[in-house]
Amino acid sequence: MQKLSLSQSLQQKLSPQQIQFIKLLQIPTAELDTRIEEELEINPALEEGMDEEYEQKEEDSFDDEYDDEYKDRNDDLDIDSYLQNEDYAGYKMQGDGSYEEEREMPLATSSSLTDSLLQQFGYLQLTDEQRTIGLQLIGSIEADGYIRRSLQAIVNDLAFSQNIFTDTEEIEEVLHKIQTFDPPGIAARTLQECLVLQLKRKDPADPCNALAIRIIDDFFDEFSKKHFDKIQRRLGISDATLKKVIDIIIKLNPKPGSVEGDSGSAQYLIPDFILTNNNNKLELTLNSKNAPELRISRSFADMLDTYDKSSKQNKSLKETVTFVKQKLDAAKWFIDAIKQRQQTLLKTMNAIVRFQYDFFLTGDESKLRPMILKDIANMIDMDVSTVSRVANSKAVQTEFGIYPLKYFFSEGISTESGEDVSSREVKNILKDLIDNEPKMNPLSDDKLEKILNDRGYNIARRTVAKYREQLNIPVARLRKQL
Questions:
Q1: Of 180, 164, 160, 175, which Cα lies nearest the Cα of 132?
Q2: What are the sequence ranges of the domains in the chain?
Q3: Average pLDDT for consecutive 10-residue bins of the chain (482 residues)?
Q4: What per-residue string of b and e applies to 14-48 under the rule 16 or more CB within 10 Å gives b?
């Protein structure tokens, strides 16, 4: 027999405005314009611009004015009249001609890699079937210039999509023609093939070029692992000759597709904060794009006054007032979320500036202090997740350059004196040691650990390896040069 029971539980749920704020907080300045445009398009109660009657200097005064104006509205409005009223002064959407044109910087244009290859492909004398195969191959070339799809898979693609039945030999014949295009090394299937294609474009009478081709063809595994002594013994060449051949190979382009621009526009990094030094006094401001001028549409609000005096009473009026109030609430929530975003951004960044004051004053990376998200969260009395959302994808413009906020967060390393230093400082020392190491005998992780310990940094070898990997520096064997 089934029993019924009653239990109580306590649950915490985010309000719609809190959800709105969280989503707005984590997006960078570059994406904020797009998000605002989307809201303007879907909500007729929200518009751009500043209105003295609705724009208040203090946040609470806006809330009071809104509540006083709309809490006693009549719930009976005429939806038919509302739908017929299409002329709303100040209501702006993209494409309605009400936007003020902005002056844009002209951008240089460049042909894409595919366009360049198709242009060269047009000069080949091919049959109709070969031309179709060639277009399929060019379409299979990835952004870095490689074809990683197997020739058999391309054979199958042609059979299913183009109704052309061919084999890998015919595909390879057309592929070799495409591999003669510029940039050298294009349409290679492996790094080894890419390097050989580039070497074959060089002077064949130069014996060093012939040696370079042989090394890539026959000793590619040894070359990739930098076992130069094995290569030298097998080829029976001198140190000077080997060094000259290796210099030829390392100057080749491992990603030939990168020499062509696939994008016709330049990408700009937009800082979220601007920090200036005014006579040794740091002043922090938000990027102006973080402070858009938004307001409740005056025409939308006036419409309520007009219908409030109407004596019509029917079901459609109640549906209309529900729609209007939903849009007004959504507009108010969005404006409040934007304001709260500005306050949280400034509050968090001000705490970071106070914590790393010496660095922002001098630009000396050795002045960076160990700092984690919890340090800032405790300073501003906010949750760590909130600080994380602010630090993510945000950047600050200083007199020393533009830095991502994540750059200032680092763990601490203890020294012999008992002080904590930022791991950023240790990484800089590690990078400097590797940059100045003897190229023919690079420093191993064990040697780097010993040097750092001698300088007073208590650091283990595994930590040295971790920092080296974070700096994208290979192991000592792969850093060896002749």
A1: 164
A2: 16-82+294-335, 113-186, 190-260, 412-482
A3: 73 67 79 84 81 47 45 40 37 36 43 84 88 90 89 89 87 91 90 91 86 90 85 87 88 78 51 88 85 78 62 65 78 85 91 91 83 90 88 87 86 62 77 86 87 83 86 81 68
A4: eeebeebbeebbbbbbbebeeebeebbeebbbbbb
Q: At what angle do helices 461-470 and 445-454 cross, to 10 degrees?
A: 110
Of 19, 69, 29, which is closest to residue 349 (Cα–Cα)? 29
Helix (H/G/I), strand (E/B), else coil: 433 = helix
- Give me the amino acid identity at 296: I
Residue 67: what residue type?
D
Residue 285, φ and ψ in degrees, nearest 5: -135, 155
pTM: 0.53
Q: How far is CA 194 from the centre of its chain?
A: 29
Contact 114, 138 (CB under 8 A): yes
Rg of the Cα trace of the chain? 33
- In the chain, the largest separation of any two C-alpha atoms, in whole Å, equals 104
For residue 197, what pLDDT is reported?
Answer: 92
Burial class of residue 136, CB neighbours in 10 A (0-12, 13-18, 19+): buried
Identical fold, 113-186 and 412-482: yes
Peptide bond into 183 cis (omega under 30): yes
**Cβ(199)–Cβ(212) below 8 Å:** yes
Q: In this structure, are residues 272 and 25 in contact, taking their beta carbons and an 8 Å threshold? A: no
Nearest alpha carbon to residue 405 among 460, 451, 360, 466? 360
Record: fold of 412-482: Arc Repressor Mutant, subunit A (1.10.10)
CB atoms within 10 A of CB 444: 15
Going by the DSSP 8-state scheme, the letter that residue 158 receives in this structure is I
Burial of residue 223, with CB atoms counted within 10 A of its CB: 0-12 exposed, 13-18 middle, 19 or more buried = buried
Q: Rounded to 5 degrees, what are φ and ψ at 392?
A: -75, 125
CATH no., domain 113-186: 1.10.10
Q: Which amino acid is at 168?
A: T
DSSP state of 259: G
The alpha-helical segments, DSSP class H, found in 71-127 are 79-84, 113-121
- Name 197's Cβ contacts closer than 8 Å, sequence gap at least 6: 179, 184, 185, 186, 188
Residue 157 and residue 150 in contact, taking contact as beta carbons nearer than 8 Å? no
Distance CA 146, CA 140 (A): 8
Q: Where are the alpha helices (DSSP H) in 392-470?
A: 423-435, 445-454, 461-470
